[in-house]
Amino acid sequence: MFESQTAIASSHSPHLRKPGSKSVSSDLGAGEPGNSVQEGYVFPLTVGEMKASNSPMHTTSIMPSPIFLWRFKVIWFLIWAFTCCKIGWDSVMRMSADLRDLFLYEAFLYYNPLLLVTMMVWLWGVCLWVFSQSTINYAKIFDLDSNHLTHIEIWKSSIWMTVIVPTSMTAYLYLYSHGEVALAASQPVILYVAVALVLIFPFDIFYFSSRYFLLRTLWRIALPLQPISFPDFFLADILTSMAKVFSDLERSVCRMVHRQVATIAWFEADSVCGSHSVAIPLVLVIPYIWRLLQCLRQYKDTKEKPTLFNALKYSTAVPVIFLSALKYHVSPDRWTYVYRRLWLFSSVVNSLYSFYWDITRDWDLSVFTRIFKFNKPSLCTNLFYGRRWVYFWVIGSNLILRCTWTYKLSAHLRHNYLTVFMVTALEMLRRFQWIFFRVENEWNKITKSGFQIPMVDMPREEEKLLGSTNHNV
C-alpha cells in the first residue's frame, strides 16, 4: 500500500524523477510508514515552492494604493503651503509699517507674472480635460500628433510651477526681512533665469517637442511673415489677455539689469524702471500689434474682409493704452478736459467692439444650440449640454470682464496691486471660458465641412529640416 502511494506521488511529479531511477519509496524503505506518508504530502510540491515554503521571510510585495499616494501628496502639499504662508507672514510682520506696503508691491512685481502664467497653465489643463471628455477633437484642430501632452501632463507641469514660484517668493520675503538683502535680490533672478533655461534647453528632456512647438509658435507670432495657422492666432489671442504679464516682466527684467532688486526706488516716477516709464505702454501694446499684423497677413492671403474688421478691433486697444499713459506727460488740466475724455471714449469703443466680436464671430452664438456634447454621462453633461443659462452667463460675464480689462490697460488707474492682480486673474478666467466656445466653434466648422480646410496653403519648412511635422503641445 505504501509503495502504491509513493508511485502515485511520483507519477504526479515527473520532474522529480529521472528516467530509469528508482522510486523514492524503495530508497526510504517500504517498511517505514511515516516516511511514506510524509512522501505523499511533500512530493506534489515543486522545488521552488519547497524553498519558498521553507523561507521565513517569504512575503508578497505590496505596493501602496493610488488613493494612499494621493492623500500622502495632498498632506505634504498642505504642509508646504502652511509653511510658506507662515514664513511669509512672519517675514512681512517684521518690517516697519511704512515699508511693508511698498515692499509687497515690489514682491508682486517680480512674482505676479509667473503666478498668472501658472494659473493659465492650470486652466489650459482643465480645457484639455473637458475636450477629452467631449466630442471635440482638439488634436485635429491644433494639428497635433498622437503623442501630444494630455491634461495630466499639463497639470504635472503646473504643480511644479505652483510649488517653485511661491517657494522662491517666500525665500525672498524671509531673506529680505532678516537683513540678507543680497541673497533676497538673487531669488527672483535665479527663478527667471531657470525658467528661461528650461524653455530653451536644447536637449530631449522636459517635453522637448512641446517646448519647441511653443517657441516656434511664439516666433511666428512675433514675426508674422508666413501664413497664419489656427495655433498662431489662438495663442496670440491668449497673449493679449496677458499684456499685464508682459508689462511686469519688462519692469522686473529692467530692475534686474540695473541691479535695483530688493529696493523700493522703482516706485519713484523718475527712476529708470519707475511706474511712469515710457516702456510700460509700449510693452502693453505689443500683443495687440502682433494680433493686428496677423489679421493683415490673413487678409493678404485670403482676401476676406472680416479679417480687416478684426484688425480694426485690435487697433482700438492702442488709443486706450497710450491716452492713459499721457496723464504722466501732460499738464493736469489738459488731461482732465481733453485726454481723459478721449480715453473714456476709446475705452468704451474697445470694450463693446471686442464684446461684439467675441459673441458673433469667435463664438458664433447667433443661435443657442449646443455646448460640449460629452461622450460619457457626467455632472458636466447635466450642467452644460443644452442649458441656455450657460450662454447667458458667458455673455454677461464676458461683457463685464471686457469692460474691467480696460482697467489693466490704463496705467494711470493701477495703484492698488491687489486690485490689479484680481482684475488680471479675472481676465484669465474670461479667456478660459472664451477658449471653450472658440475651440468648439472651430470644431463645428470642421465637422460641417466634413474635413479640415486649412486657412491657406502653408509651406512647412520643418518637414525639410526635421523630416517630420510631429510635435507635442
UniProtKB/TrEMBL annotation:
EXS domain location: 271-470
Pfam families recorded: EXS
Record's compositionally biased regions (Polar residues): 1-13
Keywords: Membrane, Transmembrane, Transmembrane helix
Main location: membrane
Signal peptide as annotated in the record: none
Protein name: EXS domain-containing protein
Organism: Gossypium arboreum (Tree cotton)
